[in-house]
Amino acid sequence: MMENTEIAKVLRDVGTLLEIDGANPFRVRAYENAARTVEPHAVPMRTMVESGAKLTDLPGIGKEMASHIQELVTTGALRVLQDLTREVPYTLVEMVRLPGVGPKRANKLWRELGVETIDQLEAAAKAGAVESLAGFGKKTQERIVRGIASLKKRAGRFRLAHADQLVEPLVEYMRTHEGVRRIEVAGSYRRRMETVGDIDLLVIARDPQPVMDHFTAYERVKKIELASGTSARVMLQSGLQVNLRVLPPASYGAALQYFTGSQAHNVKLRRRAVARGLRVSEDGVFRVPEGEDPDAEDVLSGERVAGASEEDVYAALELAWIPPELREDRGEVEAAAGGKLPELVTLDHMRGDLQMHSTWSDGHDGIDAMVKGCVERGYEYLALTDHSKSLAMTGGLDAEALREQWREIDEVQAAHPEIRILKSQEIDILRDGSLDLADEMIEQLDVVLVSIHSLFDLPAAQQTNRILAAIRHPAVHILAHPTGRLINEREPYQFDLEEVLCCCKENGVAVELNAHPSRLDLKDTQLMRARELGVKIVISTDAHRVRDLDLMHYGVEQARRAWLAPADVLNTRPLQELLGSLET
Ligand code: DGT
Ligand code: CA
Ligand code: ZN
């Protein structure tokens, strides 16, 4: 059964293969547009097909795309794709996404060097065969080698939001079984890491076998890799691996603690236990009998002192309970021992969202809808940050359009006195560091957001100077998605983040934690550094539709991983205080 994301992927792949094959750009675009509609659509395509809904009513879906979607939903495959891959190797799709490649170059690599896979490309590039092709060169070749290295590093890891989409229905399905008394997802997923390698599911049940059977019978299981006793491992159709462990109530807390990890955190706890004559394991915390080696793995003797709840496990080690997001051995055990765990920011602390787009640029919903969405989420304010003019493909606004937009904002504002709409723009930082909007307009904005959307490949020193120049502009308040990375897709651009953070501090400019799950930019360790330097931080969704406003929790989770307290995040503050702190 195909999810919307999977259907979108097939459509997108067809578009990419057609593009490599040199097909008509309009045909290529049709697939890309259809994928873009299907992917975020709230209702699953299979439900729409089942209920006989008219797919052609969706934007970007014509007759042909509608029949493709229908075919995918009912057969799980697409003839067009099968025909196409007889001509063009499917593996080129992955290659196209490498930095420095693209469809035309992929075609050339394939036809002239016979390169079909990433491994073959890596070998060819390392042997120096790529730079001699027309249109390539030494620099491109080096970029390709670097790109492949970073691709291999992240191989098989799923973005957290993607994992959420796959895990939530599975957990719901498991809950429908009467034998399941409690269920929790542990591992990196519970620590809310930006990507997860696999899923670690824990269940309390008196009788394991029926629960194991229920698990392996899940309709989206592609392959059962292991199933015996109280544990099972399956591969879902999406490629995500899920481990299940069925446990008795007495050791649930210990197992939850152990399988939540991280490994480094667990090693630290273990050492602390040993120093107290205790042993922690996934079964519980035990008092080690006189004369026994507390570090031995397999002995299961001694009195159990804790295990049913996580709180007990930590308490047995004389520690306060530690929020999962902190469990990375970054000082949290010491902090818990000294009663110095930070008060972490929560979604409830957030009083507004400071980056979002509307139909005035590349957003999908109008100002009124976005504002209502923010009201519904209980916000006191929002900043409307449509793009500036040099981003023509997003319909970026020039001064005249911006003035027009302000008139609409004033109208919507009058209708919604319960929330404050801050006039803003996501102003593009141009090549030389100047801003893509005239100063006399910038001065009239409530919030001035700047960011980079072009020239990602400038040499590091030049890129750094470009960003520094923008930060030094006296009107700028926030540097948005500061590194430009896209998780699993694009590395950050090369620049000196430390220097940029110091410059932000000096100039009172805040950095954004972009909450969009494909960005999460800055990331946790970078945010920790920003806070250490005293740089102000805001968390914003970068919403392009009302529903995206719900992505705020991903930002908050990342912020928690960075030890941020509500006081570290500007948009936890009431409006007047926020405006005051942006100005200083
Ligand atoms: P992932 O799946 O790569 O995103 O990361 P995790 O943290 O979920 O790691 P995973 O799935 O290999 O194991 C889940 C947890 O189980 C891990 O965070 C800590 C615990 N664990 C697994 N293997 C070991 C081990 O060899 N020693 C210790 N102390 N803990 C382990
Ligand atoms: Ca895991
Ligand atoms: Zn942006």
Say how many strands there are: 17
Helix content: 40-55%
The CATH class of the largest domain, by name, is Alpha Beta
Q: What is the tally of helical segments?
A: 24
Mind telling me the C-alpha Rg?
A: 26 Å
Q: Segments where pLDDT lies below 50 for 5+ residues? A: none
**Would you give the CATH topology of the largest domain?**
TIM Barrel
Based on secondary structure, the structural category is alpha/beta
Task: List its traits.
584 residues; alpha/beta; Beta Polymerase, domain 2; Beta Polymerase, domain 3; 7-stranded parallel sheet; binds calcium ion
Question: What's the short version?
Answer:
By secondary structure, the protein is an alpha/beta fold. Helix content is 42%, strand content 13%. It folds into 4 domains: 4-153, DNA polymerase, domain 1 (Orthogonal Bundle), CATH 1.10.150; 158-247, Beta Polymerase, domain 2 (2-Layer Sandwich), CATH 3.30.460; 259-337, 2-Layer Sandwich (Beta Polymerase, domain 3), CATH 3.30.210.10; 347-583, Metal-dependent hydrolases (TIM Barrel), CATH 3.20.20.
